Amino acid sequence: MADHPTPIAPRLVADDPMAAPDLPVSARVRARIQRARRRFNANDNISEFLEPGELDALLDEVAGKMQGVLESMVIDTATDHNTQETARRVAKMYLTEVFRGRYVAQPPVTEFPNAEYLNELMIVGPITVRSACSHHLCPIMGRLWIGLMPNEHSNLIGLSKYARLAEWVMSRPQIQEEAIVQVAELLMSKVTPDGLAVVMEADHFCMHWRGVKDSGAKMINSVMRGSFLKDAALRREFLSLINMKA
Ligand SMILES: [Zn+2]
Hints:
By secondary structure, this protein is of the alpha+beta class. The chain is 40% helix and 20% strand. The protein has helices at residues 11-15, 25-35, 54-72, 86-98, 100-103, 159-170, 176-191, 205-208, 227-230, 232-241, and strands at residues 111-113, 122-133, 139-149, 155-157, 173-174, 195-204, 218-226. The strands form two sheets. A five-stranded mixed β-sheet has the order 5-2-3-6-7, sandwiched between helices. Helix 3 crosses helix 4 and helix 6 (159-170) packs antiparallel against helix 7 (176-191). The radius of gyration is 22 Å and the shape is globular. Zinc ion (ZN) is lined by residues 133, 135-136, 138, 206.
């Protein structure tokens, strides 16, 4: 099998952005991601595949498609003054606000060596969580706490940076279980602590606004790494300090 050349499918021609300049910008970006064999799920960041100016071009493209959605919903955007600019407003909100964490690079984080050899439990939170579910694009609003057990090799980052990094991960269409793992992995790579705990408590508007319409339901989940996994007393201390049941 190995000596058979892979047949070149006609669409591979279109995968070359240079060969098909008339393709929508999303197709050009997608082709680059696929060529790099990378994932582009809703909660992945694709900023490294965007060239300067392409986010504006994507915004135009999404606005055009959103206009089509409104038309298919039989909304009179021509004479209804409330909806004349809705397609562009929604496109702008998605690409530059609520899902911005897909399209912009990670916010810069200055890491400081742990010069004082701090090795006491450190808690950051609550950090406000604003996201939307990948299933319905309905808002997810909640809070997040981070517990860290630094060691002498850990890097320390400024307090506000925890919120910036969390916001970058959360401002994508998300699934709470995956979001919290993404936050934990990002922090593990930046801080390299002995232990890390992340707890997220969130309201899922797809349960309030539609579906079961249960306005009281919240989802709480946690990720524990390193010493927080091994040390039950540390885990209890963290959970009691953030006021959660162990
Ligand atoms: Zn949902």
